[in-house]
Automatic annotation (TrEMBL):
<feature type="transmembrane region" description="Helical">
    <location>
        <begin position="145"/>
        <end position="164"/>
    </location>
</feature>
<dbReference type="InterPro" id="IPR005828">
    <property type="entry name" value="MFS_sugar_transport-like"/>
</dbReference>
<feature type="transmembrane region" description="Helical">
    <location>
        <begin position="60"/>
        <end position="77"/>
    </location>
</feature>
<feature type="domain" description="Major facilitator superfamily (MFS) profile">
    <location>
        <begin position="22"/>
        <end position="470"/>
    </location>
</feature>
<feature type="transmembrane region" description="Helical">
    <location>
        <begin position="315"/>
        <end position="337"/>
    </location>
</feature>
<keyword id="KW-0813">Transport</keyword>
<protein>
    <recommendedName>
        <fullName>Major facilitator superfamily (MFS) profile domain-containing protein</fullName>
    </recommendedName>
</protein>
<keyword id="KW-0762">Sugar transport</keyword>
<feature type="transmembrane region" description="Helical">
    <location>
        <begin position="344"/>
        <end position="364"/>
    </location>
</feature>
<feature type="transmembrane region" description="Helical">
    <location>
        <begin position="448"/>
        <end position="466"/>
    </location>
</feature>
<dbReference type="InterPro" id="IPR036259">
    <property type="entry name" value="MFS_trans_sf"/>
</dbReference>
<keyword id="KW-0812">Transmembrane</keyword>
<feature type="transmembrane region" description="Helical">
    <location>
        <begin position="89"/>
        <end position="107"/>
    </location>
</feature>
<keyword id="KW-0769">Symport</keyword>
<feature type="transmembrane region" description="Helical">
    <location>
        <begin position="176"/>
        <end position="199"/>
    </location>
</feature>
<feature type="transmembrane region" description="Helical">
    <location>
        <begin position="18"/>
        <end position="35"/>
    </location>
</feature>
<feature type="transmembrane region" description="Helical">
    <location>
        <begin position="113"/>
        <end position="133"/>
    </location>
</feature>
């Protein structure tokens, strides 16, 4: 059943401090995920020198995390439906602890790969569950802000990874430096594992389990008023197939409400609205990495070296600039998500990415063709990289996670989000494991022209397939994707026979 409520949920639009605290703790697990990406970009230079690995082994080492994250994300959806969002975050933290210890020990390439795989499983769990948890405790007015916190934490983790590369690589021995870079990720994971157990469970998951009394208590804490909590509680009960007037503390719910039969509803026999939702979620996750961000974040030292930066210290400093740019523009996005809206941010973001990638492709091509060092092309390459990273993080980066975690109906949210994350990690793995081979085949400038072309396709897809969700209650989303938006979104393209 779909409820058309307008904006009745949004009565007090101030940010609830307890909901903010819960989202922050849940999002902290993403710091480790980001740190692993950032630290590996610099650590690979030292690992190659210490262990003597080839370019192919580097590509596998870079990409294997995302192959394992694909497995983790597909498992995480069902896991979070069974044991809850909170314990799934706890499980991700444990995986990060084990993986970081193995990588920090790292006596050889094989052990390093095992540690990277374990961390990859943790990344898959973290990327799926942190946005879902934040989405499910948020009100419509603050959902964009709170659900984008995991992406902020990923950016902070990447930046800390870059800082770690610079200082540990500079001041420690070759053998100790990269191992400490990778091993210290266990420290924040231990902290999150303990703190997350003091946080409440998602009220929407509690309702799916029939634990109405506990769900209402949580909603009273994460809502600004008792009236808002009551309205949200009624909407969630209806979405879970429970009578909105039910006052029992514990009720028996159907297996369907607890996540049974979800794959059939998502893949085999989806309704037109669910099919559109799935296409939108898979599409936005696909294009987040098909547009090349992992090539820049993971291989930025190689890119800057190709542009003409030769000193290892300067390479790492230039990479720190990438991290600062990412954090700065993500903070801007935090302010804009609930004011400007998801759709407009995406259009501006991807448009800027096209400019940045085209300029980067041009400048790197000029560097390669120049017979002597072209300082103007070097400067333009670095500036284009920062422009691309800035525009990516002001829109596509945070909107991907906010949008995909808020559009699925309650019964499909965890496992629907896990499909999106699986696509995300697949594309991440493909880009990270093939970038060196691609730029050797078509030149490094040509590879960024390719990513610019993918960005053009992404802009067109977002324009036609993603309606605006700003300010909508989670329980309204299915109805939003059932409607034919006036002149902007084209539900009929997906199902021409469907009548709204």
């Amino acid at each position: 059943m779909i409820i058309d409520q307008g904006d009745k949920e949004v009565q007090n639009t101030s940010l609830n401090k307890y909901a903010l605290a819960c989202a922050l703790v849940a999002s902290m697990v993403s710091i480790v995920s980001g740190y692993d990406t950032g630290v590996m970009s610099g650590a690979m230079m030292f690992i190659k020198e210490d262990l003597g690995i080839s370019d192919t082994q580097q590509e596998i080492l870079a990409g294997i995390l995302n192959v394992c994250a694909l497995v983790g994300s597909l498992t995480a959806g069902r896991t979070s439906d069974v044991i809850g969002r909170r314990y799934t975050i706890f499980l991700a933290s444990i995986l990060f602890i084990i993986g970081a210890i193995l990588m920090g020990y790292g006596p050889n390439y094989a052990v390093l790969m095992v540690g990277r795989c374990v961390c990859g499983l943790g990344v898959g769990f973290a990327l799926m569950v942190a946005p879902v948890y934040s989405t499910e405790i948020s009100s419509a007015a603050s959902r964009g802000f709170l659900t984008s916190l995991p992406e902020i934490c990923i950016a902070l983790g990447i930046f800390l990874g870059y800082i770690s590369n610079y200082y540990l690589g500079k001041h420690l021995s070759l053998k100790l430096g990269w191992r400490l870079m990778l091993g210290i990720a266990a420290i924040p994971s231990i902290f999150v594992a303990f703190v997350i157990l003091s946080m409440p469970e998602s009220p929407r998951w509690l309702v799916m389990q029939g634990q109405l009394g506990k769900a209402k208590k949580v909603l009273l804490r994460v809502s600004n008023t008792a009236q808002e909590a009551e309205l949200r509680f009624k909407d969630i009960k209806i979405a879970a197939g429970i009578d909105e007037n039910c006052t029992d503390e514990i009720v028996k719910v159907s297996q369907k409400s607890q996540g049974e039969g979800v794959w059939r509803e998502l893949i085999l026999r989806p309704t037109p609205s669910v099919r559109w939702i799935l296409i939108a979620a898979v599409g936005i996750h696909f294009f987040e990495h098909a547009t090349g961000i992992e090539a820049v974040m993971l291989y930025s030292p190689r890119i800057f070296r190709k542009a003409g930066v030769t000193s290892k210290e300067k390479l790492l400093l230039a990479t720190i600039g990438v991290g600062l740019t990412k954090i700065t523009f993500l903070l801007i996005a935090l302010v804009l998500l609930d004011k400007v809206g998801r759709r407009r941010l995406l259009q501006v973001s991807v448009g800027g990415m096209i400019v940045g990638l085209t300029t980067l492709g041009f400048s790197l091509t000029m560097v390669e063709q120049a017979h002597e060092q072209a300082s103007w092309a070097l400067t333009l390459s670095i500036m284009a990289t920062y422009v691309y990273v800035g525009f990516f993080n002001v829109g596509l980066a945070p909107v991907t996670w906010v949008y995909s975690s808020e559009i699925f109906p309650l019964r499909l949210r965890a496992q629907g989000t896990s499909i999106g994350v699986a696509v995300n990690r697949s594309m991440n793995a493909i880009v990270s494991m093939t970038f060196i081979s691609i730029y050797k085949a078509i030149t490094i400038g040509g590879s960024f022209f390719m990513f610019a072309g993918m960005s053009v396709i992404a802009w067109v897809f977002f324009y036609f397939y993603l309606p605006e969700t700003k300010g909508k209650a989670l329980e309204e989303m299915e109805m939003l994707f059932t409607k034919k938006s006036s002149g902007k979104s084209v539900a009929m393209v997906i199902d021409p026979m469907h009548k709204v």
